[in-house]
Amino acid sequence: MWRGSLRNPDGPVGARWDWGWLSDCFGATKISLSDVDAALYAVERKGAILWIEVKRPSERIPYGQMRLLTAFATKPQCSAMIVWGDPDDPHEAQWILHGVAGERQAVTRDDVHDAIAYWFDTANQ
Predict the structure, then answer these.
(1) Strand 89-97 relative to strand 105-106: parallel, antiparallel, unpaired?
(2) In the chain, what are the domains?
(3) Contact 15/39 with Cβ under 8 angstroms?
(4) Distance (Å, whole) CA 96 – CA 101
């Protein structure tokens, strides 16, 4: 396997999430999450960027991927969130803000919704 190749080529298709349940987080805009790759989603508002990486419940974050997300979150107005769960059913989440990874916490879909709505409200100011 060469560097950068998928460790589980069959995994991404089953990992796609439908983020429609977040549509009201973004106010009266047409903003929605963009699919960057099969497990990385992004949204931008007024220069602020949020990356959301999704993983299956027992999947670990490889060192290099965590390093990339952490480095990204050191940039001004850039944040990252890792969400573990089944498609459209988050179980745990971890924020990476200002280059620092927070604790992995148990979450519900409502928790993720509220956190992203808060991110948008902050970015929208």
Answers:
(1) antiparallel
(2) 20-123 (3.40.1350.10)
(3) yes
(4) 4
Given a contact cutoff of 8 angstroms between Cβ atoms, the answer to whether 22 and 113 are in contact is: yes
DSSP state of 59: P
pLDDT in tens, 36-72: 666 678 899 999 999 999 999 999 988 988 998 999 9
C-alpha 11/C-alpha 110 separation (Å) is 25
What H or E segment, with its residue span, contains residue 45?
Answer: strand 40-45
Q: Which of 82, 92, 18 is nearest to 50 (CA)?
A: 82
User: What's the pTM value of the predicted model, to 2 decimals?
Assistant: 0.79
Tokens of 103: 């604790």
The amino acid occupying position 67 is R
In tens, the pLDDT along 82-116 reads 999 998 899 999 999 999 999 999 999 999 999 99
Instruction: Please state, rounded to an integer, the average pLDDT across all residues of the chain.
Output: 85
Q: Which amino acid is at 23?
A: S
d(CA 122, CA 111): 17
